[in-house]
Design brief:
Keywords: Signal. This is T9SS type A sorting domain-containing protein. It comes from Flavobacterium cellulosilyticum. InterPro entries: PorZ_N (IPR048954), Quinoprotein_ADH-like_sf (IPR011047), Reg_prop (IPR011110), Secre_tail (IPR026444), WD40/YVTN_repeat-like_dom_sf (IPR015943). This protein is mainly β and about 750 residues long. Among the domains are: about 30-250, Methylamine Dehydrogenase, Chain H (7 Propeller); about 250-325, no CATH class; about 600-665, no CATH class; about 680-760, Outer membrane usher protein (Immunoglobulin-like). It is built from three helices and 64 strands. It is globular. It starts with a helix and ends with a strand.
Length: about 750
Amino acid sequence: MKKRFLYLLSLFFLQFGFAQNNLLWQGYFSYNSIKDISASPTTIFAASENALFSKNLNSGQLKTTNTIDGLSGQTITSLYYSVVSNKTIVGYENGLMIVINEKDGSMLNVVDVISKQLPSNLKKINHFMEYNGIVYVSCDFGIVQFNLSTMLFGDTYFIGNNGAEESVRQTAVFNGFIYAATANGIRKADITSKNLVDFNQWSQIATGSWSSVETFNTELLAINSSGYIYKFNSSLNSFTGFIQLSQTSSDMRAIANYLIVTTLNSVYIYNNQLALIRQINSAQIPESNINFVCATSIGDVIYIGTKENGIYSTTILTTTTFENTLPSGPSRNNIFSFQTTSNELWAVYGDYAGDYNPYPLDSYGISKYNEKGWLNIPYEKVLGAKSIVRVMINPNNENEVYMGSGYSGLLKVENDIPTVLYNQNNSALEDITFINGYRNDVRINGGAFDKSGNLWVNNTLVVNGLKQLKANGQWQSYSLASIVDKYTNTSFGRLIIDKNSTKWWCSNFEGVLSYNESTNKFKKITFGTDLGNLPSPDVRAIAIDNNNQLWIGTAKGLRVLSNVSSFQSDDQMTTKSIIILEEGVAQELMYEQFITDIAVDGANYKWIGTADSGVFLVSTNGQETKYHFTTTNSPLPSNVINDIDINSATGEVFIATSKGMVSFKGTATKANEDLNSAYVYPNPVRPDYTGTVKIAGLLDKATVKITDIEGNLVYETTSEGGTIEWDTTVFGKNKVASGVYMIFISAQDGIETKVKKVMIIR
């Protein structure tokens, strides 16, 4: 047991160092949905769902921070910049705090709140208030002190009745007292008291539910959960009504000479006399369906955080024009499915439940990424297509893309413009007619192009469940009655096509279904030793590797069909599990794991995504697990993996999770046909570089030998795919010295050779 623990521990540090230092991670996060904002005299800071961005007002420079830089993938709930300490504090829904030193960018994860022996749903951080170097952290259980100088927590205040937990939304200091707006009233205590941990020190001065309390000049103001603003009357030790808002308030803050109150559709700006000097309504912003979250000001410019489109700014007094601040990114973090080519990536956001039910329907639009950045096409422009769940790019024409919808049919996009929505009214696609309430559903969840440019899609919950959109625009339907026992219960998933033009697709009750038009045969692989040997008939992922093996991911594990050509010869195709040795004990690879996707890279390694355990990278035969990436040892923002795809030209592995997409650029490039484009990077290797040297543009099975200038061999390997790595050591031992190193590359047959050089500077 001890040996196993040490092995796992060493693997953890190996993976963490490998991920952080030796390979390139990239984040592709959405910054649209703002959770909180803060400001310095020269910079606006913003927190989106699980990433940050800032804008320097002098230089106009935008800076983003996400899990690649060390943030957590958890949901952010609050943000505060301290002018005094030049530190930014990020608060999370799970109680985590991250303190960023803006001087050098270093981060400190503070887990004291997470570690408290409290129910997990009571640890959310709601607000930060700084007073005399101490930050008072409002949480769903009470208040915690945090010292910005020592970076340590102080006392915790449970201020509910008899010292019970109480959800504190905001705190403020006024005339020597600290006030707390809570879900059950407003409480106050002497800020100088040495015994604020005693709940008896906190007296209740107002009942009901309150969202905010704030000090503004000589006034203390509070807002209740009905959107009524109150002023504190010191002589009566109570609050009196002042202004009724048209909506409940989401944020109130005092900035210099302004009191700013935010509701869903309006921002109210009051002067020192509490006179309303500006009301900004969301309808004034050209983009439709904008909802406000919070607002702050720098000088006479107000910055408004929105749920949908980053930050809008405008001058407080004179203008009605708005400037939008939003880093490039997808429109949402929860990318459900995507497809990438060597030049671009298309992403969609629809989803479905475990039974493939798309309800409640989503209206999110689609996104495209290329070297120019992100293009987000809103729902208003996708011809009414809801719950879009699959992307199919025409390999012969990347400007022609099809999107499968779990409700609306098949959307065609040409030159980035949605042009046609195929459904039951204008194509062979069929809607559901047997389920009451779902009569208009046209569910398309899998599709792929064949070698002739025909698009094949599966049409769920209808008898003619396989459709072909021919290159000439004609449709053809195929009945699945011979292999689907109950089409009214069976939903379909991903679809792929092998080198023999056999179509393979997933289903939730019938396993893997397949069809080949040359023989006009349908077959299936499903649960049961005599029916295909799947561990579950619920298949979620399929992939064909470089050896023509079909890898099948189910809700309860993994199976492999040894050769896809067995479709032609075997009446019943049978899969096998992969048995590995774990400390001498035979075990099944991915046993009982819910597998969500499988992708095969240029080296024939398999990237396996799971529903809750992150990503596994396994060797060509599955016998060796190269890496297991999770939120704890990599920049993955979530262990819930939605989709994986690989740019075969660059080897960049894109991983879409429930909380954002990242990519991992390793050595998994597709092999080249010759050595003419072989190259080395980085070159030269400078002293501050901690990663590996990569030799790319290789033939498969190429021999690579590296020597010093005197001909002493320091490294040798054989490529699998188009790229290899060298850690700049002598066969994994000591680092090589500064100097020029020769790289000799030769094809497997020895006919083609290439010589490269790399300079290393220590």
